[in-house]
Amino acid sequence: MDSSSPAQGAARSADLAALDVRITGCRACPRLVAWREEVAATKRAAFADQTYWGRPVPGFGPPDAPLLVVGLAPAAHGGNRTGRMFTGDRSGDVLYAALHDIGLASRGTSVRADDGLELYGVRVTSPVHCAPPANKPTPGERDTCRPWLVRELGLLRPTLRAVVVLGAFGWQAALPALTEAGWAVPRPRPAFAHGARVTLVRRPEPDAPGTGPASAELFGCFHVSQRNTFTGRLTPAMLRQVLATAAESAGLPTRSPWTS
């Protein structure tokens, strides 16, 4: 399963389903492997009766999504427990509530991998697929994991029209991945900011000219971390606004029932 080489595993993945399977078998970063497995074995008291996933967490959403949301990494007792991105923790509840509010998710909560949640035209992923200690991957771990994100972006190229990046770490990881996947990122590289918007021009593919959108819009948004949402640095209205704007640029229909 190419467990020690994300670059080889990513290159051998013909579609997103194959990529997701290979991601779950990755053991390329010893510190992350040890941590995610330790958490899965010791558990949190509230989840002591549950079997933790304890592996890398793949992306979630349709393989032809025109909108991609990029986070940071799975939470130790969220995605690392449930096996699905932003599932089983408060950050996920904030994100999926916003997606549901604007009509891009079938429900506003994400409790477990088999809870029936569906995403409409949007896929959720992260630049690091293993839960890191203290929610802080190292730059080396980010770079080791990058081939998975590059391949995911490449497989989404025929439909991808907008990318929302949650937080500065994800932004710093996404820019080089987007470059490797075939988009021209402006120079100097744009700085992260909430509400930032950058147009990325797609470089032509010699073997598939004219396929897919000619450009994609990149959006910055504060991360849906508890620290940001509890302090009000990121409010539900702020998150909905960024997601709705990105969805509009991706050509997705949205609804706006909220008043604040």
From TrEMBL:
It comes from the Bacteria. One of its GO terms (molecular function) is metal ion binding. GO terms for biological process: base-excision repair. CDD domains: UDG-F5_TTUDGB_like. It holds the Pfam family UDG. Belongs to the uracil-DNA glycosylase (UDG) superfamily. Type 5 (UDGb) family. This is Type-5 uracil-DNA glycosylase.
